[in-house]
C-alpha cells in the first residue's frame, strides 16, 4: 500500500443495472449501475478508506453541511436542521424560501482529476494520493444482464457505485461547495438545498439567486451537472 499501487486485476467491475423504484424499465436512465468488485478490491478499499477517514476526521476536513456518508448522521438530522431554521423564522415573522437541487449521475460523472486536485488541496498524505490515483486509473467494466456479459469497456470518469471508498471520495469532491452568509446550505449525499429567510420576499429571492449564481460557476468549474 505504501508503494502507491493498486493492482489492475482488482479494478475490473461487473455492472448490474438495478431498476429504480417506479421507473420505466424501457428507459436506460431508469437503472442504477451497481458495481460488483473482486473481494480483494473490497479489502484494499476498506484499508484505504480507514486511513483516509482517519485523516479527514483528525483534520476536520469535511464540511458540516454534508450529512451523507457521515457516521451518526442521517436524513432525519438534516431535516431537523431545516425544520428548526424555518420554525425559528416563523417565530420572528420571517418567511422562508428554498431551492432544491440534485447532482446528475453524481457517482458516474465525477471528474477523476478533480478528485486528485481536491486531495492535494486538503494536504492528504502523498502515499494516499498516489494510491487513490492508481485506484481510479484504468478501471474497466462489463455489464451483466440476464446472465449475459458484455464486452469489457474502460471507465474514464466517476467512482464506482457499490464501492466502499466511492461515497467518501464524492463527499470530498463537493466539499468546497460555495456557502454564503445569508443563506443556509444543506446537503445529503448528492441532494442539495439552499434556504433563505426574511420578512421581505424580494430579499429572499435576491439571496437565493446570488447563491445559485455562485453554485452555477462552481458547477461549471468542476464539471458537475444538475438535474432539472
UniProtKB/TrEMBL annotation:
Q: Can you name the source organism?
A: Araneus ventricosus (Orbweaver spider)
Q: Which domain of life is it from?
A: Eukaryota
Q: What is the lineage of its organism?
A: Eukaryota, Metazoa, Ecdysozoa, Arthropoda, Chelicerata
Q: What InterPro entries would the database entry show?
A: DNA/RNA_pol_sf, RdDP_mobile_element, RT_dom
| Gene for this chain | jockeypol_108
Cited CDD domains: RT_nLTR_like
Q: Which key words are in the record?
A: Nucleotidyltransferase, RNA-directed DNA polymerase, Transferase
Q: Which GO MF terms does the UniProt record name?
A: RNA-directed DNA polymerase activity
Where in the numbering of this chain does the Reverse transcriptase domain appear? 1-228
Q: Name one Pfam family in it.
A: RVT_1
Name of the protein: RNA-directed DNA polymerase from mobile element jockey
Amino acid at each position: 500500500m505504501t508503494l502507491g499501487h493498486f493492482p489492475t486485476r482488482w479494478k475490473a467491475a461487473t455492472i448490474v443495472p438495478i431498476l429504480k423504484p417506479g421507473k420505466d424499465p424501457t428507459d436506460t436512465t431508469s437503472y442504477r449501475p451497481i458495481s460488483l468488485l473482486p473481494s480483494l478490491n473490497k479489502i484494499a478499499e476498506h484499508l484505504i478508506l480507514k486511513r483516509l477517514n482517519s485523516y479527514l476526521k483528525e483534520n476536520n476536513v469535511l464540511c458540516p453541511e454534508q450529512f451523507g456518508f457521515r457516521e451518526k448522521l442521517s436524513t432525519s438530522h438534516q431535516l431537523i436542521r431545516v425544520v428548526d431554521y424555518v420554525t425559528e423564522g416563523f417565530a420572528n415573522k420571517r418567511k422562508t424560501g428554498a431551492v432544491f437541487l440534485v447532482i446528475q449521475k453524481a457517482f458516474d460523472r465525477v471528474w477523476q482529476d478533480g478528485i486528485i486536485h481536491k486531495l492535494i488541496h486538503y494536504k492528504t498524505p502523498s502515499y494516499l494520493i498516489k494510491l487513490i490515483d492508481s485506484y481510479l486509473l484504468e478501471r474497466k467494466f462489463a455489464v451483466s444482464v440476464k446472465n449475459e456479459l458484455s464486452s469489457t469497456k474502460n471507465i474514464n470518469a466517476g467512482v464506482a457505485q457499490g464501492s466502499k471508498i466511492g461515497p467518501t471520495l464524492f463527499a470530498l469532491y463537493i466539499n468546497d461547495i460555495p456557502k454564503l452568509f445569508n443563506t443556509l446550505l444543506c446537503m445529503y449525499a448528492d441532494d442539495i438545498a439552499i434556504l433563505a429567510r426574511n420578512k421581505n420576499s424580494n430579499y429572499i429571492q435576491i439571496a437565493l439567486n446570488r447563491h445559485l449564481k455562485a453554485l452555477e460557476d462552481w458547477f461549471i468549474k468542476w464539471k458537475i451537472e444538475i438535474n432539472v
